[in-house]
Amino acid sequence: MQLPTALLFLTAFSASTASAWRLALTMQDFRTASMHGTTNSGCTRLGLDMSSPVAVAYFCKSSFADTFELYANGDCSGRKYTNGEGAHRIAPGFRVRAYKVY
Length: 102
Known about the structure:
The protein has 102 residues and is an alpha+beta fold. The chain is built from one helix and eight strands.
């Protein structure tokens, strides 16, 4: 009887750790940049055309990451915004060059 219980626990644990965070940035010109992962991202430079200021950020947390930060510089200096799960209006908007999720 212990083997089925252990298998059930491992299945439930792997399903809970498989959840991924998602970050979507909508710019003032209505383009959207989307990122995702399961654990902390570290400093991640955006290789996208982020020439328009970000107007809205939407973040869905994971089991291991519940906060995001947006930066004006590609080296994660000039932190401009920090928040958690949900949709967030960014005012005033700014050009995002990098982000962290943790």
